[in-house]
C-alpha cells in the first residue's frame, strides 16, 4: 500500500515572490508538511499573494534524500536574496 505524504501546493500570483524562506513561482511548488514549520504554514496560507492548496504526494513518487521528507524542487531564498546566474556579456 502506498503512503500518502500530506503537503501544500503553493503558487504565486506574481513573480518573483518570496515568503516563508522560499521563492515561489506561478507554476507552483509542492511542500511536504513535515518539511515546514507551523509558522511557515500559517505565513503561506494567509498570504494574499499566494494560492495555497492542501494536497498529498505519493511517497513512491518522491525521492527522499533527507528526513523529514524534503521540499519538492524550489529555489531556496537565503536571507531574502537569491543567487542568480551571471549575465553574459555580448560579444563585440
Structure write-up:
The structure is a single chain. The protein has one helix at residues 38-45; strands at residues 4-12, 17-19, 22-24, 29-32, 50-58. It is built from one helix and five strands, in the order ββββαβ. It is mostly beta strands and 92 residues long. It is globular and about 40 Å long. A three-stranded antiparallel sheet has the order 4-1-5, covered by helices on one side. The chain has a two-stranded antiparallel ribbon with strand order 2-3. The chain has a domain at 4-61: Ribosomal Protein L9, domain 1 (3-Layer(aba) Sandwich).
Structural class assignment: mainly beta
Order of helices and strands: EEEEHE
Query: Largest beta sheet: what is the strand line-up?
Result: 4-1-5
The top level CATH class name of the domain at 4-61: Alpha Beta
Distance between the termini: 61 Å
User: What is the residue-mean pLDDT, rounded to a whole number?
Assistant: 75
Strand content: 25-35%
Based on CA inertia axes, which overall geometry fits? globular
- Please tally the β strands and state the result: 5
Amino acid at each position: 500500500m502506498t503512503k500518502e505524504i500530506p503537503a501544500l501546493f503553493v503558487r504565486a500570483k506574481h513573480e518573483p515572490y518570496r515568503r516563508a524562506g522560499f521563492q515561489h513561482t506561478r507554476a507552483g511548488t509542492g511542500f511536504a508538511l513535515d518539511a515546514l514549520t507551523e509558522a511557515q504554514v500559517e505565513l503561506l496560507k494567509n498570504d494574499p499573494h499566494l494560492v495555497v492548496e492542501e494536497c498529498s504526494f505519493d511517497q513512491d513518487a518522491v525521492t527522499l534524500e533527507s528526513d523529514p521528507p524534503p521540499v519538492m524542487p524550489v529555489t531556496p531564498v537565503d536571507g531574502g536574496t537569491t543567487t542568480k546566474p551571471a549575465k553574459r556579456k555580448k560579444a563585440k
